[in-house]
Design goal:
Four copies of one chain form a homotetramer. With 193 residues, chain A is mostly helical. The first copy, chain A, folds into two domains: 58 residues, Arc Repressor Mutant, subunit A (Orthogonal Bundle); 134 residues, Tetracycline Repressor, domain 2, CATH 1.10.357.10. Helix content of chain A is 73%, strand content 0%. Chain A has nine helices and no strands. In chain A, helix 4 runs antiparallel to helix 5 and helix 7 crosses helix 8. The longest helix of chain A is centred in the N-terminal third of the chain and has 28 residues. The N terminus of chain A is likely disordered. At the C-D interface, helix 8 and helix 9 of C face helix 8 and helix 9 of D. Chain A binds a DNA duplex (21 and 21 nucleotides) through helix 1 and helix 3.
Chain lengths: 193, 193, 193, 193
DNA sequence: TATGAATGAGGTTTCATTCAT
DNA sequence: GATGAATGAAACCTCATTCAT
């Protein structure tokens, strides 16, 4: 119907801007008020009407997913890069550090991932599909190398890292990094034990 | 209203029965629907009116606290007993096992403990006050003995155990016991490392 | 739990009063603004909170059904009475008169009955179950007597009466009575035709 | 915006195509979801933006009117033709048959005609203005001939036919034709009665 | 004391309508 | 003229909390 396509692309740019604003605002609001924060709080911060939120993210989980997605890519991509440049166990440790940074600054996301709330039912699956393979590769390499114990699956590890990376009230990210480090120590294979 | 007023003690017994029913029901409902479950769900299960809930537990946190309390005592008391009968590191490990059993079967409690929700603001404090000293004693003994590293505080440890004990969707308590064991391995002091 | 039952009955009376007020208000509002009128309009007229409406009538159809029910009984009961005191064709005509009075003063109900809106899916069934047998008895008697044609089912007749009894904008109930009378004339069995 | 502006007539053709698509789509959607169906549903089916709908049909009633109009002309024109080729009473019967075909396949239109909704306030007037005279002519001829009773006005008749032609859930157009036939039988003048 | 009906604030969601492109 | 993104009012519905009985 529209002979000239130009306006369409222009419009898309506007929409894109709103979508980005929403995801950013949602990230901030989730961090403050949790994943169940009122939609209004998010749209106000994004400077956008409620309708716009629902147009782009019909379900709450869509928005949460977008927020997760917005940070997850860099972490996912870091996996292969670290594997290439470091010995397996070290690569795993460095990757976990990155992962903790991601989760620890996104209060409430992890709890959404395991909340059991039907609205978020798909999220853990998405999360695992996206990061599971990266962890599996890192873990397998270290197990093959013989420096890491083999009795813990990639998903178990991912879940443990997720929980330990949860922001703890009254403590900073250092706390998370410390307990994650302890956990990874425990993961080291030590035949003498 | 009631012409035949039952003796006071009789009433007390009734109240006690209701309180117990409420706490038990709340535990079950929290496990199924999370700590934010509708009050009605709890009172229906307890076979009691909503008013009764509010009489005994004016705030949601009071009820959560009661539920936590109902399981926490045995775990708290187990601390000294285990310390008396086992070497420090082993005592710590056994106690952690008990603790995990408690938390892993109370879905949602840990997340309430760290939810940041103002309604639960007092809970972490209560939790720490109650269990902090027990962990501290077990931990100090092991550090003194030299079998456990000294760079992790009792509260950090308690928090880490709490997170790792969270029920993971699709996995059972075995998962929690496994990752807790890994964590405790990491806690062991190993000068050779 | 409550030893003395008296208060319960008392309370029921209060609730009953609200329910009656709601049904009456709904009848009035449906007549003015149609069956899809905002819930608020109804509760305001009934002098009751929205919550009360939803407690007693969780679905819109429940309320419509109650409104229908509130008038339908007298009409249903009139069937046998008229059959006993009049020749069949006359009984049918008199009953139709009563039926038209009922429907014509409840603007919008009939349209709900055949709206196709999923919310009202059960209503036509309810309506037919309630009145179908009455019409069938009246009709059968007249057919047996030989004064009424036999090629129209009771449900067809009921539906036709319902449609012709719909309040017509700008016309009063006389209009409905007149067209219903014409229809019933058409129903008369006349072998000579 | 558009550098290459198409000739005006070309534009007109496009607009015409859109209008036709909208009316057709509206007819289909009204049949399925009622006259109050979301605008989006209609524009999607027409393959057109919402803005286009509002440009051509600023008010919902305009669209309904267009849909009604699209079918009404043939029926209106059939009046004189039938009057010319048949005896009055027969002409009336045949015309009613055509009318029923029109209404029975346009679910929801008749209810819009008498909904009382301010948005449709003009529709009944339009409907009567268009078809009233046709019915009046047919009716007058039959009354003059002496085969049809004279105590029912053309508008009363039109309204009755409209109601009886309403699609009945679970029944087909046969049902409507049957009850309309009964009604017309009732309309016949029979001095013997 | 216990009850559960009533309340209404607060959140969600839908959709008619506008308007920049 | 056409588009469809954005808007926000308006409706829905749920539930924590109060309070008359």
């Amino acid at each position: 119907m529209a002979e000239d396509r130009a306006p369409v692309t222009r419009r898309r740019a506007d929409a894109r801007r709103n979508i980005d604003a929403l995801v950013e605002a949602a990230g901030a609001v989730f961090a403050t008020s949790g994943v169940e924060a009122p939609a209004k709080e998010i749209t106000d911060l994004a400077g956008v009407g409620v309708g716009t939120l629902y147009r782009h993210f019909p379900h709450r989980a869509d928005l949460v997913k977008a927020v997760v997605e917005s940070g997850i890519d860099a972490v996912a991509q870091a996996g292969p890069a670290l594997a290439a440049g470091h010995p397996p166990a070290e690569a795993l440790r460095l990757w976990a550090r990155r992962f903790t940074e991601l989760i620890a600054t996104k209060r409430g996301l992890a709890s959404a991932l395991q909340s059991g709330d039907p609205a978020f039912r798909e999220l853990p699956g998405y999360f695992l599909r996206r990061l599971g393979p990266i962890v599996a590769d890192l873990l397998d390499a270290a197990v093959t190398e013989g420096t890491v114990r083999e009795d813990l699956g990639a998903e178990d590890l991912l879940h443990a890292l997720t929980m330990l990376s949860q922001p703890a009230p009254g403590r900073g990210i250092d706390h998370n990094q410390r307990v994650v480090a302890v956990f990874l120590d425990g993961l080291r294979h030590d035949p003498a034990r």
